[in-house]
Amino acid sequence: MIVIAAPSNLGLRPLRPGHEPGTWRAPAALFEAGLLDAVGAGVPVVMPRPSWKPGPDPGTRLRNGLAMRDFNLALADHVAAAEARGEFAFVIGGDCSILLGALAGARRQGPLSLVHVDGHSDFRHPGNYDPDSMLGAVAGMDLALATGRGEALMTDWPGVPSPLVQDRDVVQIGERDGRGPDFAWPDVNDTDFERIDVFTATEIGPQAVLERARHRLHQRFWIHLDVDVLDDVVMPAVDSPGAPGIAPSDLVTILSGLVPDPRCVGMTVTVFDPDLDPDGRYARTLVGLLGRLPFG
Q1: DSSP class of residue 84?
Q2: What is the pLDDT of residue 16?
Q3: What band does 182 get if pLDDT is binned at 50, 70 and 90?
Q4: CB neighbours (10 Å) of residue 53?
Q5: Strand partners, 173
Q6: If you write DSSP's letter for every residue of 26-77 in order, what string do you get?
Q7: So what's the pLDDT on residue 180?
Q8: How far, in Å, CA of 161 to CA of 111, rounded?
Q9: Confidence check: pLDDT of 178 > 80
Q10: 257 beta partners
C-alpha cells in the first residue's frame, strides 16, 4: 500500500465571507495523529498544496476549476503509478474533488466500479441547478462528474473513456438527504446506481449492505469514503455535518469486507477539516477507525 496525501480544498465553497476551507490540512493532521502507523504504511507521497481562490476562473463555471484540473491530473499519475507497481493506492484528502483524479488514474487499467460512501449523493450537475446563477463546488458534484454529468473540464480525462464510471457500476451508501421534502437532487433516483441510504443501511445491517454492494461489483473497483457519512455527534469536523449517520462499527464492517478484495485498487478519504478540530480528538477518532481496516 502507498499513501498519497492530496491536500486539496479546491472543491469547496467558503462557509462565510473571508473563509477558506481547511480540508487541505487533513493529511498532515491525520499523519500527526498516527495514521501511517495505524494502517501500516511507509513514507507517503505528499502532493503540493494547490492554491484556492474564492472567485471564478475564465472559461469554467466550476469553482477553482483550472487548478482542480491540474491537481487531479497529477493525482491521476500517482494513482496510475501505484497500480502499475501492484500497490493499493490510499489517497488522503482533501475534499471530494480528488475522487476524480483518483478514478482517472485507476481507469487507465480498464473499466472500474465505484463504492461511494457519503452522507450525500454529490449528484449536483447542470441538469438540476443553474450554473449561470452560481459557481459549482465540485465537492458536491463528484459523483455526477464521475458518471459523466457536467463540464468536460472534470468529466473528460486523457487516455480514458468518459464517463469514468458507468451508472450500473456505482454503489452509493449512506445518503441521509434522499427522503425529505427538500431533497436537493431528486434525479439521482432516475439513475441505475445501487443506492443504500443511511436509513436502509441501519435497518438491514452492515452485512446485508455489504452483500448488496458485492452484488454490483463485477470488476475492479475504487472505494470513496467521505467521513461526513458518520453522524455529526461522532464526526462534526467536516464541511457539511449531519445526522443520522452510519455507526462507526457498521462502517468498519462494510469497509472491512471491501478493502481486502483483490479487485479493490484503492480508496479516497475526504472532507475531514482540522480547522474544526482544534484539540485533535476527531483526527484520533478517524485514525482509530481507519486503523481497524484490513489493508494487508
Answers
A1: H
A2: 87
A3: low
A4: 12
A5: 117, 196
A6: HHHHHHHTTHHHHHT--SPEEPPPPPP-SSPPTT-SBTTHHHHHHHHHHHHH
A7: 57
A8: 9
A9: no
A10: none
CB 109 within 8 A of CB 212: no
Backbone angles phi, psi at 272, to 5 degrees: -65, 130
Give residue-wise pLDDT tens across range 131-174. 999 999 999 999 999 999 999 999 999 999 999 999 999 999 99
List of domains in the chain: 2-290 (3.40.800.10)
> What integer pLDDT is reported at residue 296 of this predicted model?
77
* Helix or strand holding residue 215 (H, E): helix 206-216
Q: How far is CA 281 from the centre of its chain?
A: 22
- Per-residue b/e over 111-136, b at no fewer than 16 CB within 10 Å? ebbbbbbbbbbbbbbeeeeeeeeebb
pTM, full prediction? 0.97
Question: Please, what's the b/e burial string for 139-175 (b: 16 or more CB within 10 A of its CB; e: otherwise)?
Answer: bbbbbbbbbbbbbebbbebeebeebbbeeebbbbbbb
Q: What is the mean pLDDT of residues 98-113?
A: 98
**Distance (Å, whole) CA 170 – CA 163:** 12
What's the first-to-final CA gap in the chain, in angstroms? 8
| C-alpha cell recorded at residue 173 | 451508501
The mean per-residue pLDDT over the stretch 89-110 comes to 98
Distance CA 67, CA 12 (A): 13
Rounded to 5 degrees, φ, ψ at 137 are -105, 110
Asked which of 222-226, 262-266, 292-296 is least confident by mean pLDDT, the reply is 292-296
Q: What cell was used for 100?
A: 476524480
Judged on CB neighbours under 10 Å (0-12, 13-18, 19+), 186 is: exposed
Residues in Cβ contact with 217 at an 8 Å cutoff, skipping those fewer than 6 apart: 113, 115, 171, 261, 263
